[in-house]
Write a structure and sequence with these properties.
- InterPro entries: DUF1599.
- The protein is mostly helical and 182 residues long.
- It has one domain.
- The protein is built from six helices and no strands.
- The longest helix is centred in the middle third of the chain and has 26 residues.
- It is globular.
- The two termini are 21 Å apart.
- The model has no long low-confidence stretch (mean pLDDT 94).
């Protein structure tokens, strides 16, 4: 993978992590109350808003699209952490405990990207942000179906792989949006 991509990816993730940690300091781990389908729906709301703004060409709420992609990334990381912690872990989790979990989920997602980028090249660089938004929504519909099937799949990858793919697509969108302007 190109060094440029590694640097851009890490830059985006660092910004996402910074927001995640600051919000955790502000709100604690209130998100621990959410079941996985609720987290999936939070991500769905963000992706649908992005698609709606892309289709209409304007927006009425000030929050920008980049912020929504950051939210998608952080909610996907939250989902992966929630899957690991489960319901038996304490509701409140210290920032010092969460930060390494965040890093671990992002690192395994980045490793998945490296493997896929090896096979596909940098094909995502030639894609449209709107197409990647649609792919994120498709993956959300897949996750919802898997959740409705109590997590069972016959041949398909599981929920965690879909969350990881959504993280990577959202990172790609942020890279394309940021670096295409410079």
């Amino acid at each position: 993978m190109k060094e440029q991509t590694v640097g851009e990816y890490k830059q985006v993730i660092e910004a996402c992590k910074d927001i995640f940690l600051k919000k955790t300091k502000d709100y604690g781990t209130a998100w621990r109350i959410l079941r996985l389908p609720s987290i999936t729906d939070q991500i769905f709301i963000k992706a649908k808003r992005i698609q709606s703004i892309q289709n209409k060409g304007n927006q009425k709420v000030v929050d920008d699209i980049a912020g929504e992609f950051i939210g998608i990334i952080n909610y996907c990381v939250i989902a992966l952490i929630q899957m690991e912690l489960g319901e038996d872990e304490p509701f409140e989790v210290a920032v010092e405990t969460l930060e390494p979990l965040y890093d671990e989920k992002v690192e395994s997602t980045f490793n998945l990207l490296m493997d896929k980028n090896h096979d596909y090249g940098e094909a995502w660089r030639d894609m449209r942000v709107s197409s990647m938004t649609d792919i994120i929504l498709m993956k959300l519909l897949r996750v919802k179906q898997i959740e409705d099937n109590q997590g069972q799949t016959i041949i398909s990858e599981g929920i965690d792989a879909n969350y990881q793919d959504m993280i990577n697509y959202a990172v790609f969108c942020l890279i394309l949006m940021k670096f295409s302007k410079s």
